[in-house]
Amino acid sequence: xxxxxxxxxxxxxxxxxxxxxxxxxxxxxxxxxxxxxxxxxxxxxxxxxxxxxxxxxxxxxxxxxxxxxxxxxxxxxxxxxxxxxxxxxxxxxxxxxxxxxxxxxxxxxxxxxxxxxxxxxxxxxxxxxxxxxxxxxxxxxxxxxxxxxxxxxxxxxxxxxxxxxxxxxxxxxxxxxxxxxxxxxxxxxxxxxxxxxxxxxxxxxxxxxxxxxxxxxxxxxxxxxxxxxxxxxxxxx
Amino acid sequence: xxxxxxxxxxxxxxxxxxxxxxxxxxxxxxxxxxxxxxxxxxxxxxxxxxxxxxxxxxxxxxxxxxxxxxxxxxxxxxxxxxxxxxxxxxxxxxxxxxxxxxxxxxxxxxxxxxxxxxxxxxxxxxxxxxxxxxxxxxxxxxxxxxxxxxxxxxxxxxxxxxxxxxxxxxxxxxxxxxxxxxxxxxxxxxxxxxxxxxxxxxxxxxxxxxxxxxxxxxxxxxxxx
Lengths: 237, 225
Prior knowledge:
Largest sheet of chain B: none
Structural class of chain B: mainly alpha
Mean pLDDT of chain B: 90
Oligomer: heterodimer
Largest sheet of chain A: 6 strands, mixed
Number of strands of chain A: 10
Strand content of chain A: 25-35%
Strand content of chain B: under 5%
Shape of chain B: globular
Order of helices and strands of chain B: HHHHHHHH
Radius of gyration of chain A: 18 Å
CATH architecture of one domain in chain A: 3-Layer(aba) Sandwich
Largest interface: A-B, 32 and 24 residues
Helix content of chain A: 25-40%
Low-confidence stretches of chain B: none
């Protein structure tokens, strides 16, 4: 085993007693969560439950007020470059520049990630996400669904081990939903992990192997998805 | 080498965005010219008075043009959370700061050239005889100001009433560079020996270096929530 490879039981992203406060508001309180390779985790809960905060903590965009966020057993913020190289994040915001084309956006982010054979990767991404014909179109002129595809292409360009998706189905057309659902199914099969949040419990449960339910900033359930889950106020819609 | 590639990528990205929508430069130049235009009606100075008033007028124009420049620079990032997108990459946050700083320096420098041209027309004042010292003095002051403005522009990007908060935050910090800029510019325009205003030039340069280094080291905290 190469020296940098973490022991199998420590590989992954982990929240350890993590709380995040915004002023007096506890957006997340005492959260414990392990994300291991091969996981497909559905984050479910009402608005304001803490799903976005949890994902942003895992994605390195926020520091915990209390507790630790670990990457392969070590503090994530002490090794941000290694963690960021292994994480892809798709959010409500696309992180794309509207006046740049699809290709220019991917090239820009690929440069930031110092990816080898960047042109080949971009070409492959364009084909994978059906963006070849729109490669030279400014992102601003694309539909919401196509912008989401570009955002996914951006997040997957560096082949992350962990893909974090914050309500990725919002505003998508049927074709884009199918593409995304296929992607979510495919990732755990490749030994990687995906964590996604959605208000659509039925769709999310069909794609995930594990359910993490949040209410008022606390994780109230973490276990297998088995049909409809009814526990401590967690309801399917 | 990789660091240089990243800084260049961010710099070129900003240039490309500006070339595509051309909002920042146009608005900054127009605003700067407007300030000069209004001052011309307010003062109408003669040749002697011009030497006394112009340095202050120039730096007031640069200061307000800079606010517009920094606000616009980070408005583009705010549209789709571009700063966060860059923060997701495994790059030193200080490099993001340097890339943005270079772009803002270029845009503000171009606007300053336009403002200086406008001043030379309206006040019938030639900058050519003093250009040899006027240019580097102005550049150093602008560098210090852009170093401050880029940092506070990023801070203000995510807060309420950012257009108001940016000047409120950055002007007090930038006061030393404004004072140094005005004093050094006065000496340069009067044709005084450089030794008479070298201390002000050193102050502007020191301020730029200190603020750039501090911002480079602390920019990760600006990006994080």
